[in-house]
Design a protein that fits this description.
By secondary structure, the protein is mainly beta. The protein contains two helices and nine strands; from the N terminus they run H-E-E-E-E-H-E-E-E-E-E. Strands 1, 2, 3, 4, 5, 6, 7, 8 and 9 form a nine-stranded antiparallel sheet that branches. A hairpin with a 2-residue loop joins strand 6 and strand 7. The termini are far apart.
Amino acid sequence: MQRLASLFFIGGSIFLMSFTTPATVNKGEKPTKAASARKATVFQVDIKESKLNWTGKKVTGQHEGTINIADGKLEVESNVLKGGSFSLDTRSIAVTDIKDAGGNAKLLGHLKSEDFFAVEKFPAATFVTTSVTSKGGGNYEVTGNLTIKGITNPVTFPATVTVAGSKLTAKAAIKVDRTKYNIKYGSKSFFEGIGDKAIYDDFDLDVTLVAAAK
């Protein structure tokens, strides 16, 4: 029975970014005390409050599940996101839509195998930002490097960030092409004639990061 493979990947470590913006100083002038002291605030991700849900689709349906977030940091300056990173523990991948114990275990074992995420060999998946564009109102376009199974590719996705005092909540919807990470099982792009057994190349990750200022 074909199982959802397009899932995530995410395993590893990650989320580190330093985006302190230097103050602008006129030639011949000394930087003011306020300008020289300005720097980004680092928010440490709370792995218990944060979560990642994945959805993988195939011709005949879809499967859903979760993956634990292992670590993460976000950097904010004047309530504006400047950068960040997070990592996933791929060994924690779970299937939530199959209630039958036997069927659940079968799909889960397949997802953890070499056909998909090879979690014992690659226990971590990571994402590190390379650029963040503010769209206003807490909305952003985020670009960064996503690493799954030791393979790194750039991804861009929309995100929202809310800062309330020392607490930050970030939400993102990430679409991942699994074949770029050598996860080709059941892909029509590589195997012809598989008909309704095909698994779509893209899988979706819905990420919620809850963090506190350090």
